Amino acid sequence: MIDKELEAIIKCHEHLTDLDNDSRMRVFKYLFDRYGLLPSQNQASSNMHILTEAYEITEVEDTRETPKKAEQKPKKVATNGKSSKSSIGQSYSLVTSLNLVSAADKSLKEFFSGYETKTNFDYNIVILYYLKYILKEDNINVNHIYTCYKHLGIKVPNIVQSLRDTKNRKGWIDTSNSEDLKVTIAGENYIEHEIANK
Questions:
Q1: Degrees to nearest 5, angle at CA 82 with 123 and 181
Q2: Are 162 and 90 part of one and the same domain?
Q3: Full domain range(s) for residue 57
Q4: Domain total of the chain
Q5: C-beta separation of 50 from 2 below 8 A
Q6: Considering 5, 45, 49, 125, which has the largest number of Cβ atoms within 10 A of its Cβ?
Q7: Is the domain of 175 the same as that of 100?
Q8: Whether residue 66 is found in the same domain as residue 29
Q9: Hey, which residues does 67 pair with through a beta bridge?
């Protein structure tokens, strides 16, 4: 039993290492919701003591295997700037026809810098609002959002999941048609009246 638990912990560790804290929290919340109640404090601490000791041993063994890992092929990285993949394999493309610098009253960077943005929820609504109401874009999809993240130099999340989370937790966007993302009334109100301006 401990071996399976240890293997699960190692796999989780490997997958969570590259995620930012917001993404990790979403993963943990999903796992807690999906698999039910947390164990009692005493049960959790006794299990963690056993697993921690086993994990420390495994970490020592893993460092000895480092030369083998170094021989493996490196991951492919998009070098042409045309497409990329998020940490869980979703592929996006840049929308090259999108003019984020001079086509509107304000560039995306100017507009974005006018707001106190702290989370992916904030990033998503500010970007979508800009595309819809400043650039007056129609049929906005995940590639438009991806293009804006890259233009702003923000770490790209799993955009599809991030947009779903923004819809489900905040109600600021409508993702019912993934090829025509929309700002809801709640999203308009958040941008126009609630989010702090710098």
A1: 40
A2: yes
A3: 2-71
A4: 2
A5: yes
A6: 125
A7: yes
A8: yes
A9: none
Place of tokens 């999203």: 187
The burial of 44, by beta-carbon neighbours within 10 Å (0-12 exposed, 13-18 middle, 19 or more buried), is given as: exposed
For residues 179 and 107, membership in a common domain is answered with yes
- Give buried/exposed letters for 92-112 (b at 16+ CB in 10 A, else e): bebbeebebeeebeebbeebb
The residues that bridge with 115 in the sheet, in sequence order, are: 197
User: The whole model's pTM is what?
Assistant: 0.56
N-terminal to C-terminal alpha carbon distance within the chain: 53
**The pLDDT value given to residue 6:** 65
77-98 pLDDT tens trace = 443 444 444 445 678 999 999 9
Other CB atoms closer than 10 Å to residue 127's CB: what's the count? 26
In a domain, 78, yes or no: no
Alpha helices in the chain (DSSP H): 2-16, 21-35, 41-64, 66-71, 108-113, 120-129, 142-152, 159-165, 185-189
pLDDT beneath 70, residues of the chain: 1-2, 6, 32, 35-89, 103-104, 198
